[in-house]
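Table S2 (continued). Query chain:
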Amino acid sequence: MSQQKVVLLLGSNLGDKKKNLQTALQKMEQRGINILKNSEFLTSDPVEFASSNIFCNIASIIGTHLSPIQLLNLIKSIENEMGRLDDSKVSGGYTDRIIDIDIVKYNELNFISERLKIPHQKHLFEREFSKILLKDII
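Corresponding output:
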């Protein structure tokens, strides 16, 4: 498979948030993901759940040879390795988290499975912080 251009959004609202995002990107690079471009960091209030912990977010364009599901598996392994044990798809709701990595776009692919939906409609069209991050990067 040739290298695919993928847009990710990363967020953290626990611990050293900016460092958590940088660590997640480093872990991706260590696993063969090419980080092509990053947005500036942006802080935002939690969306779709109540918390006093503010998020730090970043958008990233990456290059990968992985399929969407292989990339999702890699992302979930990094989230787990960094201490995130709950998943909103499994738990049915959002909570504070040390790291959250979402696949927003995978080239121009439209993909739907039980575990993954690309493009990520909420990030592209509904969440204001996402639209701010994405407008300068894609």
